[in-house]
Specification:
Blueprint (H helix, E strand, L loop, with lengths): L1 H9 L7 E3 L2 E4 L20 H13 L10 E5 L1 H54 L6 H30 L4 H33 L3 H32 L29 H22 L6 H4 L1 E8 L5 H8 L8 E5 L5 E6 L8 H14 L7 E9 L1 H30 L2 H27 L8 H31 L5 H11 L1 H21 L5 H33 L7
Antiparallel strand pairs: 1-2, 3-7, 4-6, 4-7, 5-6
Helix pairs in contact: 3-4, 3-6, 3-15, 4-5, 4-6, 4-15, 5-6, 5-11, 5-13, 7-12, 11-12, 11-13, 12-13, 12-16, 13-14, 13-16, 14-16, 15-16
Length: 564
């Protein structure tokens, strides 16, 4: 205040400039000495101008100059292609699921399909209200939600079919089907929701878009499955001429009928099979010199370049590497044979605009022989510091997801063996996907490990525990019905009772994942492949890892049963 008093006293009638980051925002004239430090600026300001000036005065100078440490640019052509691919994937996914549900569940499947349409409208409506930006990974989240939304309907319809086969009347079978399936659906959605929330808070960029659609989809799917389908079925039954819908066709009527297989007895073969793939994956990772990390995790820049004619990636690399000062540079075909992805660490430690221009100039010099017959479709830059942060948050997200799911399963089932079996299965699925990616990389089929890949892993974690929780719920039910039964027998019964649901759910999710793999574009290729492997692995690990470990872990700790 004393300094300000002296300054104003010495400069009456003169102007004092308000400067922030080398910009003059205002230069008011000093009217008189200001003794107490309280100042006011008067003039012909608009309300908005006054607010802007007040905010500048409150904010003060930035503690450090700003630098662009992460940047992504998508050209209009590639952006339109992404929209087209997203719309095609969504429509194709819906069509396949609708056809499948009708073919397997007859007219009952039509009710599920109506709920699916409601679900899609709810998701898009909520996203519009939240002003959410729909990215390509976000569209992938919608497509994936379509497949996972069917899971709840499959659970309910399989329960209804069981009750009808047990001789229940139609309305009673409907009521019991929803009642018995409710907690399995609830548990499955909570565990998947946990993975989505972690992605939302710890992810960045496109991963957040995927997380938002996944979370909204989970809530909408739960509502449409447990409420809208029930209302529709009840309404049809209470009509003047009651309608009792069939829930099976000639195809599904005898499929898995009286199915009984000793899964638990084959668990050691499964342990050996999984271990061999994981060990092979570790060997391939060592041969490859580590995982094939994307710029998200190691820092760098990449450019997707499209040419008018087909090109050879190795020829492009030989042209551009000298201009990148022989630093770490990789060029590979990206999608079609006239498009390549150039990844380089050249000047990545320098985060100035000048360095960005120098790198782009080096790329153009390397491609000078192609004249103007190429176009940079998209580019991205991730600084080394940001890459380290992304790596840390990705690892943290995995750890938090697994710990959170373990705690929830432990809380719901009050049993350590259930939680332990579920967590081992999750680790199994995540490591198996990484192992298979390393094996493919060894044979020249390369997919990068990046943020979108981590989103796929967390989705797999949610899907896998979803499957596991459903069988755990049935184990508990079987134990309550026959508490004196041998534990291995009870586990086998639970797996066999839910086997049709496991296969049907995996099949519907695989339908939409394959659609993503085929039509989602190169950006989502690695994501889709990871999901494809993960869905198969998740179903396999539930049956051959999570449930058998309940037996192996518990027979060593407590042979009296599951009441821990």
């Amino acid at each position: 205040a004393q300094k300000w008093r002296k300054l104003t006293a010495d400069n009456i009638g003169k102007r004092i400039a308000i400067v922030l980051d080398d910009n003059v925002y205002s230069a008011p004239t000093v009217q008189g000495e200001i003794p107490n430090g309280n100042s006011s600026i008067s003039g012909s300001f608009t309300v908005d101008e006054a607010k802007d000036l007040a905010n500048i005065l409150k904010a003060g100078k930035l503690p450090a100059p700003t630098r662009i440490v992460e940047e992504a640019i998508v050209g209009p052509t590639l952006g339109q292609e992404a929209i087209n691919q997203g719309v095609l994937s969504t429509l194709a996914g819906i069509l396949l699921v609708v056809i499948f549900m009708f073919m397997y569940y007859n007219k009952g499947g039509i009710v599920a399909n109506v709920a699916l349409v409601f679900n899609l409208f709810f998701i898009l409506g909520i996203m519009a209200q939240l002003n959410s930006v729909l990215t390509l990974p976000g569209i992938a989240g919608i497509v994936l939600t379509i497949g996972m939304a069917v899971d709840a309907n499959v659970l309910i319809f399989e329960r209804i079919r069981e009750e009808l086969k047990a001789g229940r009347k139609y309305q009673e079978a409907i009521s019991l089907g929803y009642e018995k399936a409710f907690w399995s659906i609830f548990d499955a959605n909570v565990t998947t929701l946990l993975a989505g929330v972690i992605l939302l808070y710890l992810g960045s960029g496109p991963v957040k878009g995927f997380a938002i659609t996944l979370i909204i989809g989970i809530f909408c799917s739960f509502f449409t499955a447990v409420y809208i389908t029930k209302v529709l079925l009840s309404w049809l039954y209470k009509m003047k001429n009651p309608v009792e819908l069939p829930f099976e066709t000639g195809i599904s009527k005898n499929l898995f009928k009286n199915f009984n297989y000793d899964f638990i007895g084959k668990r050691k073969l499964a342990y050996a099979f999984s271990s061999s793939i994981i060990v092979l994956g570790i060997i391939c990772t060592i041969i490859n010199g580590g995982l094939n990390l994307g710029v998200d995790f190691k820092g760098g820049r990449y450019y997707v370049v499209r040419f008018e004619q087909p090109v050879v990636a190795s020829d492009i690399r030989s042209q551009v590497v000298p201009f990148f000062q022989n630093t770490g540079t990789e060029v590979k075909t990206f999608g079609s044979n006239n498009q390549v992805k150039v990844t380089t660490s050249y000047l990545i430690e320098q985060e100035s605009t000048e360095s960005d221009n120098l790198v782009r100039s080096a790329l153009d010099k390397g491609l000078v022989k192609y004249g103007k017959k190429y176009e940079v479709m998209s580019s991205s830059k991730v600084g080394a510091t940001i890459a380290d942060d992304i790596m840390r948050t990705s690892i943290l997200s995995m750890i938090l997801a697994i710990i959170g799911i373990f705690i929830y399963v432990l809380f719901r089932f009050r049993n350590r063996s259930f939680g332990f079996g579920g967590v081992v299965a999750l680790f199994h699925d995540a490591i198996l996907v990484l192992a298979l990616f390393s094996i493919l990389h060894t044979f020249g089929i390369s997919f990068e490990i990046d943020q979108v890949f981590i989103a796929a892993i967390l989705t797999i974690v949610g899907y896998s525990i979803n499957d596991t929780v459903v069988i755990y719920d049935r184990i508990r039910e079987v134990q309550e019905q026959n508490p004196l039964a041998d534990l291995a027998t009870s586990l086998n019964q639970a797996i066999n009772f839910t086997f049709s649901r496991t296969i049907m759910t995996a099949f519907t999710v695989l339908l939409v994942v394959i659609i993503l793999l085929l039509f989602g574009g190169e950006v989502l290729r690695g994501f889709s492949l990871a999901l494809l492997i993960g869905v198969v692995s998740g179903s396999y690990s539930t049956i051959y890892i999570a449930v058998p470990i309940v037996l192996d872990f518990y027979t060593k700790k407590d042979t009296k049963g599951l009441d821990s």
